[in-house]
Specification:
The protein is α+β, with helices and mostly antiparallel strands and 137 residues long. The chain has one helix and twelve strands; from the N terminus they run H-E-E-E-E-E-E-E-E-E-E-E-E.
Amino acid sequence: FSTANSALSIAQSAFAQANTGGAGVTESLNIAFNNNNATSYKIVAINTSAETILASTLDLTQANKIVGILDSNNQTVTLGTLTNPAWTWTPDQTLYLGSNGEITTSSTIDGAQFSLKVGYALSATKVFVKIGTPVVL
């Protein structure tokens, strides 16, 4: 529960800052988890040890455990913007979870157990992360 309470506290602070226009307002809500095997700019799920792991639509047990996209500082962006200079998205593209933490523009992949929208492209290199509700296939 301490991780959930910390996340709630962070979310409340971010909400308060955004609504007051206070200094230090950021464009995303980031949470730092211990990391098991994930790498930057990959979609992550949380395991039973509260560690981030690579997410996959091939694993139905992860359907409700996707928490966000790992950034280059090893923090999970759970809501908001994330920039990666190596991306080449088309603005307004809807983004989904693939396998091995991959971000894809296809709502399903071969062998997928569920489909999950993870956000959309704002520009070629910037996305808005907003984890949707999984749809079991």
